[in-house]
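Appendix C reproduces, verbatim, an entry submitted by the partner laboratory led by Prof. M.T., so that reviewers can inspect both the input and the predicted structure.
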Amino acid sequence: MIAARFGMARLRTLAVTLLACVLPSLATAHPLAPALLQLEERGGGLVDVLWKRSSLSVPGSNIEPVLPPACPATTPATFEEQGVAVLVRWTIDCGTKGLVGQPLRVDGLGPAKIDTLVRIALEDGRSIQRVLRRGEPEMIVPEKAGRFEVFADYLTIGFEHILSGADHLLFVFGLFLLCSAIGPLVKTITSFTVGHSVTLSLAALGYTNLPSGPIEVLIAASVLALAVELARDTENETLMRRYPWPMALLFGLLHGMGFAGALREVGLPQGEIPMALFSFNVGIELGQLVFVLALGIGAAILHRISLPIPLPQRAAVYIMGSLAAFWTIERTVSIF
């Protein structure tokens, strides 16, 4: 393995370098939530439309749904603010043909840098769920979403969520610094994976339903706690340093509830819940694996060059702790 060949010391140096490079983008722990376009047939050709988007936006972006030309609006749009989201509701008339075979599009996804979840409930009870993104902003309403489409969509959502969630990645970064060898690192990362997979599955299936605000505060606090542990003198072996994998398992349970909040925003498709849940989990694990492998690949590159200034591990820990403290305070204030 790359890590075994070049050693944990070089990997830590690489980690510090990477953290310094991405620091400007870590001030916000999560990207904007995906938009939602929901259409529900209710007979007689009438379709109830719900358009939900964040009230925050990237400067210069404006995402808007483009509904079928053959489906004119029959009621004026009503607006409602719900936290940081804006909900717009109205009704359209698609006639006797209904929604099947009609085109749907969302404009502005590229500049906004977000995806849009499309949920469709047909009159005969069938449910269709797709994700529109910058590379594929348009769809034709099919008879029924295929299993492969569900797998691909939710795998992508999970993959993008973990790689854009700076707090989760910083925790993995902290586990990386905590472990002194490859064996403990693999065991610790695996324990973290098991922990968040358990609570993600339980929450997504409705067995647990905790408010997202306190969970996000605790996730930030877990990153801060790990940073404090890493800042301690290594000569004093604490329980966390001696047994990192139980700690990773415990905090993984907490982070899994954060992942579940993201999945709850997206929703699970009727009839394909196990497939969607499985592929979302796979996407998260793939993203986590890419992050860890990036450190290993970078170590191989770093081995061939000489840095003008050596970067101490403590600098990375202080940056990590400062960001975690900022998130903890920010999220606590937002609750009240």
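The beta strands are 35-41, 46-54, 64-66, 78-82, 85-93, 103-107, 116-121, 127-132, 138-140. Additional entries are available on request from the coordinating office.
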